[in-house]
Design goal:
The chain has one helix spanning 2-44, and strands at 68-79, 82-96, 99-105, 113-124, 130-141, 151-162, 166-175, 180-189, 195-205, 213-223, 226-235, 244-253. The chain is α+β, with helices and mostly antiparallel strands. The longest helix has 43 residues, at 2-44. The protein is built from one helix and twelve strands, in the order αββββββββββββ. The protein starts with a helix and ends with a strand. The chain is globular and about 45 Å long. 17% of the residues lie in helices and 52% in strands. The protein has a single domain (48-253), classed as Beta Barrel (Porin), CATH 2.40.160.
């Protein structure tokens, strides 16, 4: 009888001990699965704001309300044998959810028009790594021209980001007054937390021909919200306003 009681107690203790071990293993497995799932979600939902702004191209989605960025650009232009220096400014700010304001001049002296644009996000993914926008633009005469002609344009933008690797921003807008279109696209690559190689292309499509400019460049993140970069914008076809531009840009975000 005592032997049976002893065996029974021993069996119960063994079962409780094994149950405790299995419970610990299950908890460990669940923690590991949760950790792996969190890592996957962190990668999946990584926001493309980790990237820097391009040089001249618009960001294709409006900023959140209260956010703003400034790009200050020094430009040296070569046209034939002539060299000229200029200054560009690009401001982007979020006004309302999905609605943003863009102000841009690519050269205060050389460019005929400066731009004021309202952009609206038609669709964005949860992490804003993909989105489509529409916008209306007013081209304001600020350069040398015979008469003050304001022009209205409208267009569409698209953004696609591959987290931790590259983000694409592109847009095309149509000018009904001159029956022409302007396009631009940028690829910003993330080489490291500090270094961002950039490729941009832009130009105009008119009845007389199409211009194509290519800008290979590089940017450095010098502070969490500040960058500095340099590059060369080169005309690739005969239809052109200039041959090459050397650019130096400082950017800051709030």
């Amino acid at each position: 009888m005592k032997r049976n009681v002893f065996l029974t107690v021993f069996a119960v203790l063994m079962i409780l001990n094994l149950s405790n071990l299995f419970a610990q293993d299950i908890v460990s497995i669940n923690k590991l699965e949760d950790l792996e799932q969190n890592e996957v979600e962190a990668i999946t939902h990584e926001h493309s704001d980790i990237f820097v702004h391009p040089f001249f191209s618009h960001m294709a989605l409006a900023d959140k309300p209260g956010e703003a960025s400034f790009r200050f650009t020094g430009i040296q232009r070569k046209e034939g044998q002539n060299l000229s220096n200029d200054f560009g400014l690009h401001i982007e700010a979020g006004l309302l959810p999905g609605l943003g304001l863009h102000l841009r001049t690519d050269g205060i002296k050389n460019e005929t028009f400066s731009e004021a644009m309202l952009m609206y996000n038609v669709f964005t993914s949860d992490n804003e790594n993909f989105g489509i926008s529409i916008f209306g633009q007013l081209s304001i005469p600020t350069g040398k021209m015979s008469n003050n002609i304001y022009k209205g344009l409208f267009g569409v933008g698209i953004k696609k980001a591959f987290p931790s690797f590259v983000v694409f921003n592109g847009d095309i807008h149509y000018d009904p007054k001159d029956d022409m279109a302007e396009y631009e696209a940028s690829f910003v690559f993330k080489a490291s937390e500090l270094l961002y190689p950039i490729i941009e292309t832009r130009g105009e499509i008119t009845r007389n021909g199409t211009s194509v400019y290519l800008l290979p460049a590089i940017k450095f993140r010098i502070q969490e919200n500040q960058t500095i970069g340099t590059g060369f914008q080169i005309a690739l076809v005969d239809e052109r306003e200039y041959d090459v531009e050397a650019v130096l840009q400082y950017g800051i975000e709030f």
